[in-house]
Amino acid sequence: MFVDGAWGRIFDFTRTCDHLVSAQRLTASSIVSNVIQFHSFGTKTDALPAELPKHNTNLAKKLYKVMENRNFINRLSKFFCMDDTIKTFKDIPSENLVTGGHGTCSGCGPAIGLRLALLALGRKTIIINSAGCFTLQPTYPYNPFKVPWIHLAIENAGAAAIGIYHGLKAQGKEKDVTILAYIGDGATYDIGLQSLSHACQMKTNFIYVCYDNQNFANTGVQQCSATPEKAYTTTTPIGEKIRGNPFRRKPITKIIAAHEIPYVATASVSHPLDFINKLRKAQKIKGPKFIDLLSPCQPGWGFETNEGVDIAKAAVESGAWPLYEMENGKFSLNFKPEKLKPIKDYLFMQKRFKHLNQMEVAQIQTAVSREWEMLLQGKFWDAVEY
Ligand SMILES: Cc1ncc(C[n+]2csc(CCOP(=O)(O)OP(=O)(O)O)c2C)c(N)n1
Ligand code: SF4
Ligand SMILES: [Mg+2]
Fold this sequence. Notes:
Layout: H1 6-15, H2 25-40, H3 54-69, H4 72-79, H5 109-121, E1 125-130, E2 149-152, H6 157-170, E3 178-184, H7 185-191, H8 193-201, E4 206-212, H9 252-257, E5 263-268, H10 272-284, E6 288-294, H11 298-302, H12 308-318, E7 324-327, E8 330-333, H13 343-347, H14 358-376
Parallel strand pairs: 1-2, 1-3, 3-4, 4-6, 5-6
Antiparallel strand pairs: 5-7, 7-8
Residues 104-105, 108, 110, 133, 213, 217, 297-300 line the site of iron/sulfur cluster (SF4).
């Protein structure tokens, strides 16, 4: 957990807490290190070890409060190289909170995403879902989840998060419970955008994951503003004049980042460690957090049930779906291959693009390469997404 020398640096840090510490510095050092350790294990200060003398426990609580208020914990974690990111699959938490029997398609990308999200966030999570394919995950009287689930009208996820947050707050439980809105792209980019925007503006403490399958899947694969240009959907068919979706995808991460919320990211079901670590990071940050999760849809995109993860991987490796995050306004690109794979490799894995001619593929390639160049330079706001 700590690199060599970290304990000494913690000891030094306690000098800055002198105004709070009437005891010996050494005592303060042990308290601070305890607090940091306990924080990194996700334990509340209320649960500090009983062997700490009572006055020290109170002191620890005070220190914790100061550090928490000033966002010290996060800064200290970096300062002391305290790194709790999950690096290998065997380190992923093993409590599976999704049992069998959900009602979505086999090979459903969004279903993989939700399973991963619950592995990352743990049992004390409330899931909000609005109308879409995931209406079919629990089908009365059956329910595949071991955590609470609330299902609502398609436009209401943000409003529900605000209500649940304040309900928990009234009971003094808001710090213990993670609110996860797991919502489709049609609901996010289009029908529920107003409610999401309001929840962000109100600084609601919740995580919003848009499971982005790039269409209104549940109602029969219609175009929505998450659909990429030139993709076939049932409302953007292929003819001589109309060549799939004629519109550009809405820049949803920029729209949400413009609300100046503390955390905005993209993720993909093909990169589970990246997604899980982003969720774990989001869980520790106060306020609204937004993750746009690429989640292939088997009938919507046209592939065999076992191909979804490979297609999502190809999207990331070709630059069609760059993985990045904006943390307190600071942009970082999380996956930077030496060279992107050609976009055609990704496109022709799916039936929704099989109509594309050479010129159309070249146009998409140009758009993706341009976006990538901008992102490599850290120019998030100037990059135009494909
Ligand atoms: C106000 C309103 N408009 C339209 C619908 C119909 N509707 C139900 S599910 C759905 C698709 C939602 O798409 P998305 O959020 O992308 O989820 P997915 O179906 O892809 O899982 C639509 C349009 C609705 N329920 N309410
Ligand atoms: S239509 Fe797509 S998103 Fe809906 S359940 Fe099937 S694979 Fe999942
Ligand atoms: Mg959708």
